Amino acid sequence: MNKLAQVTGPSIGFKNMNSNILKQKNGGNVYNVVYPAAFDQNSDLGTADIVRKVKEVVGQNPAECIILQGYSQGASATCDALPELTGPAFDAVKGVVLLGNPEHRPDLTCNVDLYGGKSTRKAVGFFGTKGGIPSEWASKSLDVCNFGDGVCDSAHGIGITLQHFGYIFSPQTQSMGAKFMLKKLALGA
């Protein structure tokens, strides 16, 4: 393994959101995608783990409701998994929430800033041409990009800026994400 890689675990970007959801929705589980988060930004192992886990869960219970989440490199892994989740897997995934997405693409209806506004609607991530959220997933997604976060807003920042950590400390973002996921879970139940 790359010595500069960080083995992923619970995402601090979703800690408060998930805590809020689990308090309000009984029977929920959190699965932490397994992959090394490295400087080379290769999230292929994370993508494969997401696809494997979703298909495994759906194979065991086709009625399962799934929410996918990704912060930074985890958002790339999630975006890259979406085209592979078709049929019953697509139906089981009720929502996708991304924070600081390197594959952030402009003008998607799911694009919002830290406060739910449109200041980053046209932002392009530093991997914005890689793929991002496929159009058929936009209605199921919330792609949050903080203005000036060079990871998802390359016109107003370069790389990992201080704004890239704003999601963690923003009560508005944490609340917005939790409300979005709870709404998607209620619609899917």
Automatic annotation (TrEMBL):
Keywords: Disulfide bond, Hydrolase. Pfam families: Cutinase. SMART domains: Cutinase (SM01110). SUPFAM superfamilies: alpha/beta-Hydrolases. Signal peptide: none annotated. GO terms for molecular function: carboxylic ester hydrolase activity. This is Cutinase. It comes from Akanthomyces lecanii RCEF 1005.
